[in-house]
Amino acid sequence: MTAQVQQRPALEVADVLRCHGASYLAAQGPHLSRNQLRAVKELALCRTAALGGHTEQCAGCGSQRVCYNSCRNRHCPKCQASTRAAWLEREARTLLPVDYYHVVFTLPAALGPLALQNQRVVYDLLLRTAWETVRELASDPHYLGATVGLLAVLHTWGQTLCHHPHVHGVVTGGGLACDVQGRVEEPPRWVACRPGFFLPVRVLSRLFRGQFLAGLRAAYDGGQVACHGQLAALAEPGAFRAWLTPLYRQEWVVYAKPPFGGPEQVLKYLARYTHRVAISNSRLVALDGDQVSFRYKDYADDQRHKTLVLSAHEFLRRFLQHVLPSGFVKIRHYGLLANRYREANLRACRALLLVVTLTALVTAGGSACQPAPCPHCGGKDWRLVGHVPRPRVVEVCCLPLPRVPPDDSS
Q: What pLDDT is stored for residue 368 in this prediction?
């Protein structure tokens, strides 16, 4: 397998922050959360002299280059390659030689403002409800009668950076036989899905809708849901219940895609989705004055690629609304893959599937990016020869800080 060499894009989110971050903070700073303020600071300084770094020397020709440290913020488009590669290597060991299905659970747009004001509560409920929906239907003998494994990933954005909370799930195409409460039978027995079919989407949608709204009402009654600003009227319980009523009649979007071709295809999918941020640097087209343009795919228009132009402040507003609360876990394992019983469950599954070990290759798309070769001799052997100290005081968003081609050696 050939490792990727990460090329520096012509324009980065960090460039927008360095040019317009100070003015955006002056206008909107009091309305931003601590995590959003931290993201503005760290992304703007990522791989610049402000974070310090080290000096490398090419073993072939002796030329030197400076590599600045990364910010390691999980919302940074430049800092996900190493984390993703290490995560994929761990996940490869949990894959089974069965079909895997891709399911997506989406919240209606009407719940968006409430989700933004109560991110931790609503996003946690979204992830848990997605699993409870799959668990309840899969454990029903009428559909499958088994405990399946689910890897759930939260995304909060659409192609144009608008707020669009949804959960991508990768589900095993079968599981260990269980009763309707999800208790695994003894001795264990493997139950496979019908070929090419996981669970009925309409039933998934209705059950997901009912369970989520019930959970939201319980959270509200427990004082966990705050309503302020444009939602201040919902602070009155009667108004909140009336506001929820139309959502019970609305069709909620849940869909299941055809099964993956095998474990390698699952890994290729995971490499794209698990550690993705709201927008990648490669989609940015231009920063012209106070206008930012970027590419997006219009799913409503036959998935055509288009370009959207936003003011820099609107671009930053949209980007920062996807900063998650501190410590929030956006990638979760459930059922057979739940951390507490994962090893025992997988051992039982492999024994039933007559598999001793499964070796899954992490494809090039999920591998860690390697440092760029030497521009003088093409050599790839770089040796550490010195350190660049980190300045004591940093002026955020207003320094013309130099940046270098990103690498994951920092």
A: 53
pLDDT in tens, 140-191: 999 999 999 999 999 999 999 999 999 999 999 999 999 988 889 999 999 9
Flag whether pLDDT at 406 surpasses 50: no
Please classify residue 56 by burial: count the beta carbons closer than 10 Å to its beta carbon, then call 0-12 exposed, 13-18 middle and 19+ buried.
buried
- What is the structure's pLDDT at 388? 83
Question: What DSSP letter does each residue of 120-168 carry, written as one string?
Answer: HHHHHHHHHHHHHHHHHHHHSTTTT-EE-EEEEEEEEE-TTS-EEEEEE
CA distances from residue 113 to 298, 320, 373 in whole angstroms, order as listed: 23, 15, 47
pLDDT band at residue 395 using 50, 70 and 90 as cut-offs? low
Exposure string for 212-230, b = 16+ CB within 10 A, e = fewer: bbebbeebbeeeebebeee
Whether the per-residue pLDDT at 233 is higher than 50: the answer is yes
Q: Is residue 386 within a helix (H) or strand (E), and if so which, with residue range?
A: strand 382-388
Q: What is the pTM of this model?
A: 0.88
Find, among 131, 64, 90, the residue nearest to 375 by Cα: 64
Q: How far apart are CA 145 and CA 98, in angstroms?
A: 17
Q: Are 41 and 72 contacting, i.e. CB atoms less than 8 angstroms apart?
A: no
Q: How far apart are CA 55 and CA 64, in angstroms?
A: 7
Sheet hosting strand 284-288, strand order edge to edge: 284-288, 291-298, 304-311
Q: What residues contact residue 94 under an 8 Å CB cut-off, 6+ apart?
A: 337, 342, 346
In the β-sheet with 64-68, what is the strand arrangement from edge to edge?
64-68, 53-58, 382-388
Tell me the C-alpha distance between 250 and 110, whole Å.
Answer: 10
Provide the residue ranges of all domains of the chain, joining segments of one domain with +: 94-278+328-357
If phi > 0 it is left, if psi is from -120 to 50 it is alpha, else beta; for residue 310 that is: beta
CA gap 41, 46 in Å, rounded: 9
